[in-house]
Write a structure and sequence with these properties.
The protein is of the alpha+beta class and 695 residues long. Helix content is 45%, strand content 23%.
C-alpha cells in the first residue's frame, strides 16, 4: 500500500484540462505529444510516475508506450508476456477506471483511452485516487488522450502508406537491370535510411559460396559509401536471431538487451540506441536481414516493423531476380572468356603437338591413326595428313599386323599407362627408343583413344653411363686433393702438440691429462675420418673384431659434450643392457655415431627444447642403435637422396654432403643396414642395424 501522502494527492492547477488541450494541440508528432501530456498529468496530479500504453484489446503488442518516472516493476511487466500489466492492456476497462492495490506490484490507478470505436490504450498513474475532482479530471484527460491517439494512429497510417509508396517507388527504380547489384543495394539501403529517418541502415547477406560467412554493408548518416563488415555466421546477436528464426524484431534499448552483441550488431563508431531487424526471405529461405538503427525521432514502433516487413516482401523478388541477372552476366562473360581461352589453348596445343621433338601420334581402338605430329611424319618423309586414317602398324612400320611387344592393348583394356624400350639396328649402329602409351577417356569412362610417344634415348643412355663414371671420379679427386692437404697437416700438428702437453703436464693434474687425452683421441678420430673418405674411393676392407657397441657410442659422446652444452641441446643416452658384441671397427663406428649425432644437432639448430636421444637394443640376431631428434624433419622428396655423395640440404658453409654417404658405406662394410624415418614437423630417426658376432 502507498503512503498517506500519495492518498492525499490533489490537483494544484485550477484549469488542468485547458493546459492539457494546449499540449495536445502543440505537438503534431504522436509520440512527442503523448510524452509531454503524460509529464503534465503527472505533475498536475502530483503523482510519482506514470505510463501511457497505446494498445487496444485486439492488438498483440503495444504499438507505442511512453513513460515518466515509472516504477521499476512496470517496465519489467511491460516486457513479460503473462504479466498483470500486459493482461490489462488486452482487457476492456470501464471509463471510470480501476485501482489495483493487490499483489507485489506498486499501487496503480488505470484509466482507459476510450473513443467511439473502442479502447485505444491505457493511462497508468502510481498511487491511489484521492478525490472526485482528480477522478473527473483523469477521466476527461483520458478521453482527450484517446482522441489524440485515434487521430495520430490514423494520421500515422496515412503517413506510413505515403512513405511506403515513396520508398517502394525509389527502391523499385533502383532495381533496374541496368544497375549493378551493388548499385541496387545502395539505393535500397539509402531509401530505407531516409524514409525511416534513422542514422544507420544496413543490409546483411549470407555469402552463398560460403554459407558460414555474413557480409554486412552499412550506410551511416552523412556518408554515401559502404561500411563493410565480415563475420562468421553463429546465430549470435539480434541480427543472428533474425537470420536464424526468420522473424523480425525490435530493440529500443539494446544496452539492456541480452541478445545484443556489439561485434555483430553495431557499426564502427556508432553507439546503438535502437534497432529494427527484418528478414529478407526467398522461397522460405532467409537470404539476408534489413537493419535500421538509431531512429532520430523516438523509438521504432510496430508500424515501422510492419512497414519494413512489407517493403522487404515487395522487393525481395526483384532483388533475387537482379542477383540472377547479374550472375547471368558474369557467367556469360566467363563463358565468352572461356571460349576464347579454348581457341587459344587449341592453337597452343596444336603448335606444341606439331613441334615436339619426340614422335607423337594418337590411335583409336582399331589402331587407326587419328593424329600424327610433324616429327613422326618427317621420319617417314611424309606429311601428317597423308598418314591420318591408316592403321599405325601399316603406315608407320610397314607391317600387316600390330607390332610385336606392343603394349597399347593394355592401355585400351586396363586403362593403364605403359612403357617399353625398343632397340633398332641400322648396320653396326643401334637406336634405342622409349615407347609410352597413355589412355584418352570418353564420357562413359572407357578408353576411346590412346596416345603413343616415341622418344629417342640413345644419347641419354650413353650420357648416363658417362656421367655416372664421371661423378665417381670427381668424388675421388675432390676427396683426395682436398682432404689430404687441408686436414691431415693441421691434425698432425694438433696431435703432436697434444702429445707434448701430455709429457709436460704434472702427474697430479688428472683433469688436465684427461682433457689433453680427449684432444689426442679426437685428432686420432679425425684422421680416421679422413682415411674413411679415402677408403670410400679405394673400397678398403676393414679390420673387424668383436666390440661393445655401447662403448663406441660413449666415446663419441665424450667428444661432443662441449657441443651439447654450448648449443643448449638435451642429450639422452639409453644404452641397452647386456648387449652381445658385434663384429666391427671401433674407429669407423665412432665416426658413424659422430656423423649421425652432429647431423641431428644441426637439424635442431636454434630450436628451443631441442633433444637428441641415442639408444641401443637387441633385435633378433642384430644389435640396433637409434639416433632420434625433435628437429623439423626431412621432406619426402629428399629422403631418397640423403645417402648420395655430395647431396646436402645444408647451407654451403655447413656441410659437403659426404657424411651420410660415408656412414652408409661403413655400415655396409660391416654387413649391416642404415635406415631413416622422418616426418615434417616431428623429427627424424636414424636406425643402424649390426649383426651379432658369432662366437
Amino acid at each position: 500500500m502507498e503512503t498517506a501522502g500519495l492518498c492525499e494527492a490533489k490537483i494544484v492547477d485550477r484549469q488542468p484540462l485547458e493546459g492539457l488541450t494546449k499540449l495536445l494541440a502543440a505537438y503534431p508528432d504522436l509520440q512527442s505529444t503523448l510524452t509531454k501530456a503524460l509529464k503534465y498529468i503527472v505533475e498536475v496530479t502530483q503523482r510519482s510516475g506514470g505510463l501511457l500504453i497505446v494498445q487496444g484489446p485486439d492488438d498483440v503488442e503495444p504499438l507505442l508506450s511512453v513513460s515518466h518516472a515509472p516504477p521499476h516493476d512496470w517496465k519489467k511487466q511491460l516486457g513479460e508476456e503473462g504479466s498483470m500489466l500486459r493482461m490489462l492492456c488486452r482487457s476492456w476497462i470501464q471509463p471510470s477506471g480501476i485501482v489495483v492495490t493487490e499483489g507485489p506490484y506498486t499501487p496503480v490507478v488505470i484509466y482507459p483511452l476510450t473513443t467511439a470505436i473502442g479502447q485505444q490504450g491505457l493511462l497508468l498513474l502510481s498511487g491511489l485516487e484521492s478525490s472526485e475532482e482528480e477522478k473527473s479530471f483523469l477521466i476527461q484527460a483520458a478521453q482527450s488522450l484517446a482522441h489524440s491517439v485515434y487521430l495520430g494512429r490514423n494520421g500515422s497510417i496515412l503517413f506510413e502508406i505515403s512513405k511506403l509508396l515513396d520508398t517502394l517507388e525509389m527502391i523499385v527504380h533502383g532495381m533496374n537491370p541496368k544497375n549493378s547489384l551493388d548499385e541496387a543495394q545502395l539505393k535500397l539501403v539509402t531509401g530505407l535510411r531516409n524514409s525511416f529517418s534513422c542514422e544507420v541502415s544496413s543490409i546483411v547477406l549470407v555469402d552463398r559460396s560460403h554459407a558460414d560467412v555474413l557480409i554486412k554493408k552499412s550506410l551511416v548518416a552523412g556518408q554515401e559509401r559502404w561500411v563493410y563488415q565480415v563475420s562468421t555466421r553463429t546465430g549470435d546477436g539480434l541480427v543472428g536471431e533474425c537470420l536464424e528464426t526468420g522473424k523480425s524484431l525490435i530493440s529500443n534499448n539494446p544496452e539492456t538487451d541480452e541478445r545484443f552483441k556489439p561485434a555483430i550488431d553495431s557499426v564502427p563508431g556508432y553507439q546503438i540506441r535502437s534497432m529494427l531487424c527484418v528478414p529478407f526471405e526467398d522461397e522460405g529461405e532467409v537470404i539476408g536481414v534489413l537493419v535500421l538503427q538509431n531512429k532520430r525521432n523516438g523509438d521504432f514502433t510496430v508500424y515501422d516493423q510492419q512497414l519494413l516487413n512489407t517493403i522487404a516482401k515487395a522487393v525481395v523478388n526483384s532483388f533475387v531476380s537482379l542477383q540472377k541477372i547479374q550472375k547471368f552476366h558474369v557467367l556469360n562473360a566467363h563463358l565468352e572468356a572461356s571460349r576464347w581461352e579454348l581457341v587459344r589453348s587449341r592453337n597452343t596445343l596444336r603448335s606444341l603437338f606439331d613441334n615436339l621433338p619426340d614422335s607423337l601420334y594418337i590411335i583409336d581402338r582399331m589402331y587407326y591413326l587419328a593424329a600424327v605430329n610433324s616429327t613422326r611424319a618427317q621420319r617417314l618423309g611424309e606429311e601428317p595428313s597423308t598418314l591420318v586414317g591408316r592403321t599405325c602398324y601399316e603406315a608407320l612400320f610397314n607391317r600387316d599386323a600390330p607390332c610385336e611387344g606392343c603394349l597399347v592393348a593394355d592401355t585400351f583394356l586396363k586403362k593403364q599407362v605403359t612403357f617399353r624400350s625398343v632397340r633398332q639396328w641400322n648396320g653396326q649402329e643401334s637406336t634405342e627408343w622409349e615407347i609410352s602409351t597413355y589412355p584418352i577417356m570418353g564420357e562413359d569412362e572407357e578408353v576411346v583413344q590412346a596416345i603413343l610417344m616415341e622418344k629417342d634415348v640413345t644419347e641419354k643412355r650413353r650420357l648416363e653411363s658417362f656421367l655416372a663414371q664421371s661423378e665417381k671420379m670427381a668424388a675421388v679427386g675432390e676427396l683426395a686433393a682436398g682432404i689430404a692437404h687441408e686436414i691431415n697437416n693441421p691434425l698432425t700438428v694438433i696431435m703432436a702438440n697434444a702429445q707434448m702437453l701430455q709429457r709436460d703436464l704434472p702427474p697430479d693434474k688428472e683433469d688436465w691429462q684427461d682433457s689433453v687425452d680427449l684432444i689426442f683421441r679426437a685428432g686420432t678420430r679425425a684422421l680416421h675420418a679422413v682415411r674413411n673418405l679415402l677408403n670410400f674411393a679405394r673400397k678398403e676392407e676393414f679390420e673387424l673384431s668383436p666390440i661393445d657397441v655401447n662403448e663406441t657410442i660413449e666415446r663419441s659422446l665424450e667428444m661432443l659434450k662441449h657441443e651439447f652444452v654450448t648449443r643448449s641441446i638435451e642429450l639422452v643416452f639409453e644404452p641397452g643392457q647386456n648387449l652381445p658384441p658385434v663384429l666391427g671397427s671401433p674407429n669407423h663406428l665412432q665416426g658413424v655415431w659422430l656423423n649421425l649425432i652432429l647431423n641431428a644437432m644441426d637439424a635442431i639448430g636454434e630450436r628451443q627444447e631441442g633433444m637428441v636421444r641415442v639408444f641401443s637394443f637387441r633385435q633378433g640376431e642384430d644389435v640396433r642403435v637409434c639416433v632420434a631428434d625433435n628437429g623439423p624433419g626431412i621432406a619426402q622428396e629428399n629422403l631418397k637422396r640423403i645417402f648420395e655423395p655430395f647431396y646436402t640440404t645444408k647451407d654451403p658453409d655447413r656441410g659437403t654432403g659426404l657424411g651420410l654417404s660415408v656412414c652408409h658405406r661403413v655400415i655396409k662394410q660391416h654387413g649391416g643396414l642404415i635406415l631413416v624415418d622422418s616426418e615434417l614437423g616431428k623429427g627424424t630417426v636414424f636406425t643402424v642395424s649390426l649383426p651379432i658376432a658369432k662366437v
